[in-house]
Specification:
Blueprint (H helix, E strand, L loop, with lengths): L2 H24 L3 E2 L1 H8 L3 H9 L6 E3 L2 E5 L10 E2 L2 E2 L2 H7 L5 H9 L18 H6 L4 H13 L7
Antiparallel strand pairs: 1-3, 2-3, 4-5
Helix pairs in contact: 2-3
């Protein structure tokens, strides 16, 4: 097709890319694979293995993998080998989704009522809930969200 019919789409995709990169920055940014490896005290090949086995979320940006900062913590009680506890378990339930959809699962603001989450009815992100060291009741609710993510049964 002539350039004139493609132009609006390329402009749209560029704009969406910029918006996504701004969102990443607002949500705390991303680490390179080298920095991610440093954060978990492992090698870059280990980080790649964790990415490939849904233990870490990586975003493909222009052919390079970047790791959203929210999933890294060394905080006692919520860290599992430097990764926010619960991330790997929920990621495996989301394995059929794109990296952007997985990211949205953890970072979108929700108003869903979660059994056991206090105060009831407050808005939250899954990442925030995980950082609050959720009990088993709330984890079960997060598992339910992951199971129903992207379906007609979305809660």
């Amino acid at each position: 097709p002539p350039r004139s019919t493609l132009f609006p789409y390329t402009t749209l995709f560029r704009s969406l890319r910029v918006l996504f990169l701004q969102r990443l920055e607002n949500d705390g940014g991303v680490y390179t694979s080298a920095k991610a490896a440093e954060m978990v005290g492992k090698s870059k090949p280990t980080v790649k293995t964790w990415k490939d086995t849904d233990q870490l979320l990586a975003l493909d940006i222009d052919g390079e993998f970047y790791y959203p900062v929210f999933q890294f913590t060394d905080e006692e009680g919520i860290s599992d080998k430097g990764v926010l506890r619960g991330v790997a378990e929920l990621l495996t339930m989301l394995s059929s989704f794109s990296d952007r959809m997985k990211y949205s699962f953890f970072m979108e603001q929700r108003n869903t009522v979660l059994d056991g989450l206090n105060p009831a009815g407050r808005s939250f992100t899954v990442a925030e809930v995980l950082k609050g060291n959720p009990d088993e009741k709330v984890m079960n609710e997060l598992r339910r969200l992951a199971r129903n993510y992207g379906t007609q049964n979305a809660v």
